[in-house]
Design brief:
This is Ornithine carbamoyltransferase. It is a single chain. Helices cover 47% and strands 16% of the residues. A 4-stranded parallel beta sheet has the order 2-1-3-4, sandwiched between helices. The protein has a 3-stranded parallel beta sheet with strand order 5-6-7, with helices on one face. It has 209 residues and is α/β, with parallel strands linked by helices. The protein has 2 domains: 118 residues, Aspartate/ornithine carbamoyltransferase (Rossmann fold, 3-Layer(aba) Sandwich); 60 residues, 3-Layer(aba) Sandwich (Rossmann fold), CATH 3.40.50.1370.
Length: 209
C-alpha cells in the first residue's frame, strides 16, 4: 500500500478488501463502545477549500473515535496555492501533524501535497476523484450483500469525480458496472480507458452508454 490515497487506484484489490474488512471490524468495536487507541497521540490536518457537512464531521469523528484528534483548516486559514504555496503547506504540516486530509478544487493540489509531504495525504474530494466516497459506497454494498463479487451497479448522471472513482474501483474489485451519461457529459477518455483495462484484468464488465 502506498503512503497516500490521492486516487482509488493506489489500492489494489487485496488492499481494498483488507481496508473494507478492517473498517467493518473497527465499526463493530466503536458500536460496542470500546475505547480505541489506534490513533492515540496522532493529529490529522483537514484542509477544506470546499465546505462540507458530512466530510468534515465524519473525518473529525473518526479521528476522535480512534483516539486521535483533527485540526480543521478552512478556505481562509491557508489560502492554498495563493497565500501559501502547496509545497510549503505540505512541508510545514508534515512537521506538525501525522496526516493531511485535503478537500480541494483542483486535483493537482492533492498530488502536489502528496509529492511534498512526508506524512500520508488523503483525497477527501477533488475535481477528478472522490476515493473516500467510493470506499464508503463499497462498504455499504458489502454490508448488504456480504460480498462484492458478482455485484452489478448502475451509474446514471454526469461523468464527474465520483463516477471516475467508481469506474476505477469497480474495475479493481471485479464489480460489474453500467454507466449512463448524457451526451457531452461522459467520463474523461483517459479514465474510461483505464477502467476498461482494470475491468478486463479483474473479469468485470464495464458498459459505457
Amino acid at each position: 500500500m502506498t503512503k497516500d490515497l490521492t486516487s482509488i487506484t493506489e489500492l489494489n484489490r487485496t488492499e481494498m478488501h483488507d481496508l473494507l474488512d478492517r473498517s467493518r471490524s473497527l465499526r463493530s468495536e466503536i458500536r460496542a463502545r470500546r475505547r480505541l487507541s489506534l490513533a492515540e497521540g496522532r493529529m490529522a490536518a483537514l484542509i477544506f477549500e470546499k465546505p462540507s457537512l458530512r466530510t468534515r464531521v465524519t473525518f473529525e469523528v473518526a479521528m476522535r473515535q480512534l483516539g486521535g484528534s483533527a485540526l480543521y483548516l478552512g478556505p481562509g486559514d491557508i489560502g492554498l496555492g495563493v497565500r501559501e504555496s502547496v509545497p510549503d503547506v505540505a512541508r510545514n504540516l508534515s512537521r506538525w501533524v501525522d496526516c493531511i486530509v485535503a478537500r480541494v478544487f483542483e486535483h493537482a493540489k492533492v498530488t502536489q501535497l502528496a509529492a511534498n509531504a512526508t506524512v500520508p495525504v488523503i483525497n477527501a474530494l477533488s475535481d477528478f476523484e472522490h476515493p473516500c466516497q467510493i470506499l464508503a459506497d463499497l462498504l455499504t454494498i458489502l454490508d448488504i450483500r456480504g460480498q462484492l463479487d458478482g455485484a452489478v451497479m448502475a451509474w446514471v448522471g454526469d461523468g464527474n469525480n465520483v463516477c471516475n472513482s467508481l469506474m476505477l474501483a469497480c474495475g479493481i474489485t471485479g464489480i460489474n458496472l453500467r454507466v449512463a451519461t448524457p451526451k457531452g457529459f461522459e467520463p474523461p477518455r483517459l479514465v474510461s480507458e483505464q477502467a476498461l483495462k482494470l475491468a478486463r484484468d479483474s473479469g468485470a464488465q464495464l458498459l459505457l452508454t
